[in-house]
Design goal:
The protein is 16% helix and 24% strand. The protein is of the alpha+beta class. β10 and β11 form a beta hairpin. The longest helix is centred in the first third of the chain and has 9 residues.
């Protein structure tokens, strides 16, 4: 007899084993946690992608690079000492490499003794002979000055006069000196150098090089006196030959051009004074081919390499 119960799981009651239909997708029980940054100190800056910090290891520099060794303090050098090959090179004789060859060949003496030792250190004050010539450890400098009035090459003439060295002091640290002398009233070209051979050469009485002067007299030079001067002048018992003498074109006859070989400027005054003329001014406008072109009074300039060669070949 059926009492209305449905034991077989009919529609009257739900099956206790049946699942409820889900209202939506299931959610995970625990949220996924972000991985914590690794504990590598200073290896990488996570806040700035692509930028790495240098990792340092005790006793070393950045990882992968050896630490820089502290620099040893520079050795103090004696300014009065110099290598022999540099001594020769500074003198302008040749390069350091060529100097080594000369040294090895026995062509260099220091204080009278032949030196063949490479790397030899000498003093600035030592006497060094290169192939028979005594040299100085300075580069040869050649300076041309257009000397103004009231400057002298000697400090003994007048205390009120200034020395010409004041005008070229800024040009070089080398120990230069003037070739020849000029008094306070003489103006024009004056060469300064530390080349002792050139100073000696242009100081000799028998000169091959010409000097041209413009002389200003107190009165007109008579033509007959000009002709007598052109044939030669006797001073202190010595005959002086004048290469050229003439009036300066476009100027008064008090302005005279004079071409001589002698390096002594005093001779220029003596020539005219022997004919009873007072010399007001002497201006050297040319020296061994050098001129005052583009060189205003009181200014100086370095000689070009070709000009130096020309002077040496005079």
């Amino acid at each position: 007899m059926n009492n209305g119960s449905n034991r077989g799981g009919g529609p009257g009651r739900g099956n206790s084993g049946a699942r409820k239909k889900s209202a939506g997708p299931s959610k995970p029980m625990n949220k996924a946690r972000k991985p914590k940054p690794s504990a590598k100190p200073d290896a990488e800056d996570e806040s700035k992608p692509g930028v790495r910090k240098a990792a340092f290891i005790k006793g070393k520099g950045p990882a992968g690079k050896p630490a820089e060794k502290p620099k040893a303090p520079a050795k103090k050098t004696n300014p009065d000492e110099i290598r022999l090959n540099k001594f020769i090179s500074n003198s302008g004789m040749c390069s350091r490499r060529d100097a080594d060859i000369y040294i090895q060949s026995g062509n260099v003496k220091v204080n009278g003794q032949v030196v063949t030792e490479m790397g030899r250190i000498v003093k600035i004050t030592d006497k060094v002979e290169f192939d028979g010539t005594t040299i100085t450890p300075e580069k040869k400098e050649y300076i041309l000055l257009n000397k103004p009035k009231n400057f002298t090459t000697s400090g003994d003439e007048d205390r009120d006069m200034r020395n010409v060295m004041e005008l070229v002091r800024s040009a070089t640290k080398a120990k230069i000196q003037a070739i020849g002398r000029m008094d306070k009233n003489t103006t024009g070209l004056l060469i300064f150098t530390n080349d002792t051979d050139m100073i000696r050469k242009f100081g000799l009485p028998n000169q091959k090089s010409f000097k041209i002067y413009q002389v200003s007299l107190d009165k007109n030079l008579k033509f007959e006196d000009l002709e007598k001067m052109a044939s030669g002048v006797t001073l202190d018992g010595h005959k002086l030959f004048i290469d050229e003498i003439s009036y300066i074109e476009g100027e008064a006859k008090t302005e005279i051009g004079l071409k001589l070989r002698t390096p002594n400027v005093k001779v220029v005054r003596a020539i005219f004074e022997s004919f009873k003329y007072d010399v007001l001014k002497v201006d050297r406008v040319s020296f061994a081919g050098l001129t005052k072109k583009n060189l205003p009074r009181g200014n100086w300039r370095f000689l070009t390499e070709q000009e130096v060669i020309n002077l040496k070949n005079v």
